[in-house]
Amino acid sequence: MKFKLPELRDGVDAYEPHIDAKTMEIHHTKHHNGYVEKLNAALEGQKDFESWDIQELLKNIGQLPKDIQTAVRNNGGGHYNHTLFWAILSPEEVKPSEEFTKAMEKTFGSMEDFKKEFKDAALKRFGSGWAWLVMDQGKLKITSTPNQDSPISQGQVELLGLDVWEHAYYLNYQNRRPDYVDAFWNIVDWSAVERRWQQAK
């Protein structure tokens, strides 16, 4: 399977001022596209795996030849993580439904408590990585991963992910990662997050 860079649903300038257009352009066309190109290069000539989609690859990295496992983890994870990231962004915040809100409150106490815990995970991720809301064995959970590692490789289902690599925010926020995390909530499409939750239940 030849992987392709997905188009941005709303364009590079749709998330201003929370994520600036230049960051989105570089993030999408340079960083994400680079992961796609390197993933395809790693899989070149691997006939046994050419029919596998990205989820199969990341769930079964141990079955791949050892000499491409790291490249697939890094670049396949980068492709998969960013594809999810773009899909849960909206030019304006889309509120969660009452059903989903109640599920979040049951797990985290309140949506505000969830956001505080999620922010804590994002800020404590040393260096580059991601903060996540996942389904883990049928339960909502906050986690984080280093680099481009993805929770799917650990048997979890990603519902919402925030890229905390510096390339995701540094042009606008410099070293102010907390401000970037706070701004993120203004452009989350909770309906997209909820669709993933419904599918995972």
Largest beta-sheet characterization: 3 strands, antiparallel
Shape: globular
CATH architecture of the largest domain: 3-Layer(bab) Sandwich
Note poorly predicted spans: none
Order of helices and strands: HHHHHEEEHHH
Q: What's the gyration radius in Å?
A: 17 Å
Number of helices: 8
Mean pLDDT: 97
Tell me the CATH topology of the largest domain: minor pseudopilin epsh fold
Measured between the Cα atoms of the first and last residue, the distance is 28 Å
Which strand order spans the largest sheet, edge to edge or round the barrel?
A: 2-1-3
Structural class: mainly alpha
Task: Report the portion of residues in β strands.
Answer: 5-15%
Total number of beta strands: 3
Total individual domains:
2
- CATH hierarchy, class of the largest domain: Alpha Beta
User: Helical amount among residues, as a percent range?
Assistant: 40-55%
Fourth-level CATH superfamily of the largest domain? Iron/manganese superoxide dismutase, C-terminal domain
